[in-house]
Amino acid sequence: MKHRMSPFTSFYYIWNESSAVFYSSSLTPLHSHNTMQLVLDIQNNFRFRLENGPWNNYKSLIIRENVIHQIDTNKSVQLIIYLDPETSVSKAIQSAFPPGKDIYEPDLNIYHMVNSDELEKALVHPEPARMKNIVNKVLSGLCLKIGSGNSDKRISLVEQLISNLDPRSISIRMLAEKCFLSESRLRSLFRKVTGTTIHHYILCNKIRFATNQLMAGNSVSDAAFDGGFVDSSHFHKMMVKIFGITPSDFLQNNKQKQYLICDSKRLHFKTKLHTQTS
What gap in Å lies between CA 50 and CA 32, rounded to an integer? Predict the structure, then answer.
């Protein structure tokens, strides 16, 4: 199973006070940014270390501006959000940092606020308004310490299970047992709360999972298998049906860094590379 040695990115969205990108297949050099950085894994976890520090695994992490660090995407995919450190949102986030610390690991699961369908649409169809909506949901969830917007905790649990478990292990029966509902009641309640069927939600998650595997460097056939599809043709057919793009076209569209400047006044963003000191 071959993995890329160079970064795989979606479009870089750049607004006035923030920027965002999906990122995978990379071990970065030591570097720092003049912005605050939020790193949210949308698949498994990533590895991170400060300069001269040990590697640790994280699901989500916030890094102060001008902090020297490295990130290993760890065969997974991350949503990275960069923030102007002088904004009120950034200052609210900074208040949660432990005293004297350069990083903060929030108790934050992106699927408490953004569902799998929204993330996949943002990944395969670059659209500033859609991505901005996702960024705003994440920042609101972090600053206000809110969880899922769902009114039923059982459905919130089901969404998290669908998003985090191996797609090959998921069945409606298993999900119903986990939240102590009958299968028919789960189907009905899921549609009432989310506005979509549980079958559609599971399918979108399988496509997202397989797409993430493509970003991490897997072949289309391996990604299809890992996503729980019968074969690559089935993956191809479902991705076209749901999102209107083929797996190969998705890869082709993201071969090079591409930027979407979304505001007339853009975020002042700089990255500085550093050499190992010891």
Answer: 10
